From TrEMBL:
Transmembrane portions of the chain: none
Domain of life: Eukaryota
GO cellular component: endosome
The protein's name: COMM domain-containing protein 1
Annotated COMM domain residues: 60-127
Higher taxonomy: Eukaryota, Metazoa, Chordata, Craniata, Vertebrata
Recorded family membership: Belongs to the COMM domain-containing protein 1 family.
PROSITE patterns: COMM
Example of a GO biological process term: negative regulation of sodium ion transmembrane transport
């Protein structure tokens, strides 16, 4: 059933749903309910991931690597030998070739990025 997958039902929800379906006029038999329950228990994670991948229309972050370097060249002499974070992000969709994005952050930009990520985390926690 599509409603099982779209609701990403846990085992208790699934049992209640299937019990209701067996009692409904024109519903399913208890044998069919047992088969559906076994299938869902074995394939829930794979089905859920597949639904998420199908619902995405933009690239997602597949991987991220970083390192810290010292600037050896700059237009401004006071920036030489200052630390910079080099961040490489792998973006793409499953089954498609990835794109790579390389960013350079100084200390102030790293702090700003961490602050923004903290705000995102707080917003997600509230939801």
């Amino acid at each position: 059933k599509q409603s099982i997958a779209s609701a990403d039902m846990d085992l208790n929800q699934l049992e209640a749903f299937l019990t209701a379906q067996t009692k409904k006029q024109g519903g399913i038999t208890s044998d069919q309910a047992a088969v559906i329950a076994k299938f869902w228990k074995n394939h829930r994670i794979k089905i859920h991931e597949n639904l998420i991948n199908q619902s995405r229309w933009d690239n997602v972050l597949k991987n991220m690597n970083w390192r810290v370097d010292l600037k050896s060249q700059s237009r401004h002499i006071d920036q030489i030998n200052t630390p910079v974070a080099i961040v490489e992000m792998e973006l793409g969709k499953n089954g498609q070739e990835s794109e790579f994005l390389c960013l350079e952050f100084d200390e102030a930009k790293v702090s700003q990025m961490l602050k923004k990520l903290s705000e995102i985390e707080e917003s997600m926690t509230l939801l």
